[in-house]
Amino acid sequence: MTARKEARHYRALFISDVHLGTRGCQADLLLDFLKYNDAETVYLVGDIVDGWRLKRAWHWPQAHNDVIQKILRKARKGARIVYIPGNHDEFLRDFLGTHFGGVEVVDSVIHTSADGRQYLVIHGDQFDVVIRHAKWLAFFGDKAYVTALALNTTVNMVRRRIGLTYWSLSAWAKLKVKNAVSFIGRFEEALSDEARRQGTHGVICGHIHHAASHMTHGIHYINTGDWVESCTAVAEHHDGTFEVIRWVERAVSETSAGPAQEQPVAA
């Protein structure tokens, strides 16, 4: 007999790189995550909506609309929702400082953890050299990335038919490419340097679709990951510890063998 997933409540949740409006978006998995996870504050750390793709071709199935409605419902129930636009939803940067539907729109924000540590929360594209200095190249790379995600979708259709769980071919390939690994390292260092410059204990960001939590550069670097490849989010527990939640792994674990033991990451 399988166990039912348990609902959890956190002090804060951090979600980024959902890319609503694209075929690669794992909206159903995110809806499942939002159903079983609540928080006092939910930070949407950029690229929630993919304006780049929507400009080229409209793709907005019901599940994508349901994600928006689910988030707005959390706001109506009292959760603080903070939206920090990224490069793919940069059109929202025209509305910084405004509120709509209970959602605050800001460029970045300082989050204070339960134990008093301060974290810079920012999408991170501002520290991506390609985005800053060669945006045309970023658009070119985006098209190649979409092609990889299309292949990823085909692979997972086959996996579902033979009873296997979701697996990201594109995420696996990215970590096998030396240049990609080098880029991740430079990005982490740049964001850590910015957190140090602003006098914070750590930084929480997105952008590169690579979830992480470590102290490699003397700063608590946290990346929320994404809901295209890895289906990850970051949670702050009520004691101030942070955890990277890998939703596919947890969902499988909880429904097959009961609730898994959480392993919060303390800085």
TrEMBL record:
GO CC terms, sorted: membrane
Pfam families referenced in this protein's UniProt entry, alphabetically: Metallophos
Example GO biological process: lipid A biosynthetic process
Record GO terms (molecular function): metal ion binding; UDP-2,3-diacylglucosamine hydrolase activity
InterPro entries (UniProt xref): Calcineurin-like_PHP, LpxH-like, Metallo-depent_PP-like
Designated name of the protein: UDP-2,3-diacylglucosamine diphosphatase
Organism (species): Pannonibacter tanglangensis
